[in-house]
Every structure is written in structure tokens, then in C-alpha cells.
Amino acid sequence: MITTALTELLGIRVPVVQGGMQWVGKPPLPAAVSNAGGLGIITALTQPNPEALRTVIRETRAATDKPFGVNLTILPSINPPDYEGFARVAVEEGVKIFETAGNNPGKLIGFFKSHGCIVIHKCTTIRHAKSAERLGVDVLSIDGFECAGHPGEDDIGGLVLLARAAQEIKIPYIASGGIADGRGLAACLALGAAGVNMGTRFMCTVERYGSNTNFVPFSLALSSPIHQNIKEKIVASTEYDTTHIFRTLNNTSRVFKNVVSQQVVAIEQRPGGAKFEDVRDLVSGARGRIVFENGDPDYGIWTAGLVLGLIKDIPTCEELLSRIEREAEEIISGMSKLVKAKAKL
């Protein structure tokens, strides 16, 4: 058993967090991850309104008696969601762990901390991490350039970013981007992290509830957030099957390389560049949601990280986390054999 500042703070067995993912962080996945010993995360903005979030929190709690959290990401928007409403409902429902991300999170962080909650904040730079540390977050999620979704604009890989965090950060931090197995967990622990955050790897799992199956609502037990075709596409893919969109708009996002994302890149590369309006229909969130429902990987934009190259199977969440735990323990124990006592002269 690996014990870190993260496992002790969150009350989990394995130092692995399932990151919040749009259209994916629905009750089946976070419940399965939490039952398997990690920390499952519900994605608040996948729900249309705060009351819908209340329902899925209750469904998740019916499926697991283990800790789970809620992700709330602040996104640039002409008509912003009811962030305060989502936050209030989650706190009312007794959620004690939150993953935050995005710009200007101070107000949300202050609200959660005033209610005695634990806050994990996602950052892509050390300067942003230090700012969040000053705001009082409990844990930082350091996202390297390998990650799915928004890696920031500085293009710093996880190896350097995590080592820099060890130099600068005083509170626990976890690693995000490029992690799929025990080798990755062991490497991140060696770089000073207290655990890891995985997104793409959890997209390619079977969401089973373990010992709590009998308590899962009937409608929930039959549902999976991701179509089987997409899981099989992930297994068939390599580290070369992602691309960046919105590079020219200074809002870089790593997504799966498909027909739609390549169209977006081509439009951005036109002489004179592109505006968001030029690609709005292609990058519609509704199209991305339907990818996971109809199983067509070319229907819309969907995020995926470089970790695609490491994913070779579709295990249950319990099988995956047990394997990661076992592999990491074996690697950490084996590393000690590399240290030999110096001969006395």
C-alpha cells in the first residue's frame, strides 16, 4: 500500500484522482473509480443546471460509500453558467472535495474553504500554481504539456514542470498528463508528487461498481458515459493520434486527431488566420457530446492526451487501479536495489 499526503488527506487507498471531464464525469465513472480506491470526480458543467447536479450527486452517493468530488471549471463564455448555483448545491449535498480549474478561481475557492471543503486546483504553470497556493487551495494538480484538453500556452512537459513544482510549491501536488500505469505513478512520486490525475486512461475502462452494485439506481446501472466504439478506438490509437486546436487563438486544446479537428487546424492555418466564429460549428460542444453517445469518433471534437500510446486494454476501474498500485509498489521496491553501499577504504 502506498501512503502519501494525498491518500491521507482524501481518505483514499490509491493516490489516483479521476480528473473532471466534460460529458464523461457522470455517476457511473466516478462511482466506479471511488469504489476501486481512487477519487472519482463528477463534472458539474456536464449537467444543464444546479438541480440536475444535485440529482447526480445523490445517484453517485447511492453507488459508493467512498469519497468522491465535484469538478467546477471556469470557462470563458458570453453567457456563463451559474457557477455559484452549482457550487452551492454541491456543498448543500455534503460534497467535501472539489476540483477547480480555469481563470480567476478565487471566489469559488474562498466559498469552498469557508465551508470546510478540500480544494484541488488544476494549473499548467508554476506561476499559476503559486497564485492558487496563496488563495488557500489544499492540493495542486500540475498539468504537463502531454495532457488532454488545455495544456496552457507555454508547452512545458511534465518532467520539467513537476521538478519545478518540487522546487517552488509548499503544499501537496499531483501530476496530470501522460499517466496510465504504475510506472507513471512511480515516476511522478519520484518527482515529488503526492499522486496522479488521470483522464484519458479512465475513459477507456468498464464502469463497474464492485460491492455496491446492488444499491445503484436502475437507470444508472445500465448507462455508460462513453460508447464502446470510442473505447476501442482509444486502444487502437497511438501517441501520434492527437492534435492541437485553437493554437492561433491562444487557447490551445489537445484533442483526438480526426476529420473535424483536422478541418479546424486547416482553417486556423489559412492566410490571415481564423476567428472563433470560423470554427464555431465544428467545435460545438453538442457534437462532442454525441461522439460519446453514437460511437462515431469523427462526429465532433473530443479531448484525448498523448497517453493514448500507453493504453492497450479496457479493464474495469477496479482492475486498473489494482494493477497500477501493484506495478508502482514493485517498481518502487525494485528501485532500492539500484543503491549499493559504498565500499569502505
Number of E-type strands: 10
What is Rg? 20 Å
* Stretches with pLDDT under 50, minimum 5 residues: 211-222
SSE topology string: HEHEHEHEHEHEHEHEHHHEEHHHH
- Can you give the mean pLDDT? 93
- Count helical runs: 15
Q: What share of residues is helical?
A: 25-40%
Strand count, sense and closure of the main sheet?
8 strands, parallel
Question: How much beta, percentage-wise?
Answer: 5-15%
What is the spatial order of strands in the main beta sheet? 1-8-7-6-5-4-3-2
Structural class: alpha/beta
Query: What is the molecular shape?
Result: globular
Distance from N terminus to C terminus (CA atoms, Å) equals 39 Å
List the helices and strands and how they pair.
Elements: H1 5-10, E1 16-18, H2 28-35, E2 40-43, H3 50-63, E3 68-74, H4 83-92, E4 97-102, H5 106-114, E5 118-123, H6 126-135, E6 139-143, H7 158-168, E7 173-176, H8 182-190, E8 196-198, H9 200-203, H10 218-221, H11 228-236, E9 242-245, E10 253-256, H12 259-268, H13 276-279, H14 285-294, H15 317-335
